[in-house]
Specification:
By secondary structure, the protein is mostly beta strands. The chain is built from 2 helices and 13 strands. The strands form 3 sheets. Strands 1-2-11-8-13-6-3 form a 7-stranded antiparallel beta sheet, covered by helices on one side. It has a 4-stranded antiparallel beta sheet with strand order 7-12-9-10, with no helix packed on it. It has a two-stranded antiparallel sheet with strand order 4-5. A hairpin with a 2-residue loop joins strand 4 and strand 5. The structure holds succinic acid and fe (ii) ion. Fe (ii) ion (FE2) binds next to loops.
Length: 212
């Protein structure tokens, strides 16, 4: 499990294959159940209303959403109007192991990438606190992930994320630009037929400084 671990000088950690196949399957089963209750929907960009290329849903007491009004956290699904499903224990366990933060994350954003989806360089900045790490899990097809620095113009490096890999944006890297250039369709057999080829990324975030 620790083989191939990549750590950056800036608090960035990549744990390749942290979840083995059996653990990926059981986590995926919980995520698929959450998607049944809180379907993936097509978010749009603030102001322009341009659709994002990823589809989204959330788990936890808060979910990240993007619509014409802006980016923010909401306790309910924008389409169903229902609370987000609970976060799987495997994810709170992951946070307890690597979060090094006293409070658990309220939000787990579920991003679904179809074969053509990507995510432009951005900083996760909609949280009240930007000190708690962001932890993410990849499931399904591989992706080329790009990590930059604090400025949009900072040099970037890219790495391939595979199913079961965990990324921790901690320390300074919490405020670094990052994105997904592309996925590699058909490089994993994990996802069910209706989501294959494709990739799911689960992003855990602590949003509020104290529970509200
Ligand atoms: C994100 O930055 O929100 C997603 C990263 C990923 O898909 O690996
Ligand atoms: Fe992000």
């Amino acid at each position: 499990m620790e083989a191939g671990r990549v750590t950056g000088p800036d608090g960035f950690v990549l744990l390749p294959g942290y979840f083995d196949r059996a653990a990926q399957e059981s986590l995926l089963a919980e995520v698929l159940a959450a998607i049944e209750a809180a379907p993936l929907y097509q978010p749009v960009m603030p102001r322009t209303g341009q659709p994002l290329s990823v589809k989204m849903t959330n788990m936890g007491s808060l979910g990240w959403i993007s619509d014409r009004k802006g980016y923010r956290y909401e306790p309910i699904h924008p389409v169903t109007g229902k609370p987000w499903p609970a976060m799987p224990k495997a994810l709170t366990d992951l946070w307890d192991a690597f979060g090094h933060w006293p409070d658990r994350p309220e939000a787990c954003l579920v991003n679904y990438y179809g074969p053509e989806a990507r995510m432009g360089l951005h900083i996760d900045a909609d949280e009240d606190i930007l000190d708690a790490p962001v932890i993410s899990v990849s499931l399904g097809d591989r992706a080329r992930f790009r990590l930059g620095g604090p400025e949009r113009s900072s040099p970037t490096r890219s790495m391939v994320l595979s199913s079961g890999d965990v990324v921790v944006l901690g320390g300074a890297s919490r405020r670094f630009y990052h994105g997904v250039d592309r996925i590699y369709p058909g490089t994993s057999t994990l996802l069910p037929e209706h989501l294959h080829p494709g990739r799911i990324n689960l992003t855990l975030r602590r949003v509020r400084a104290v529970a509200q």
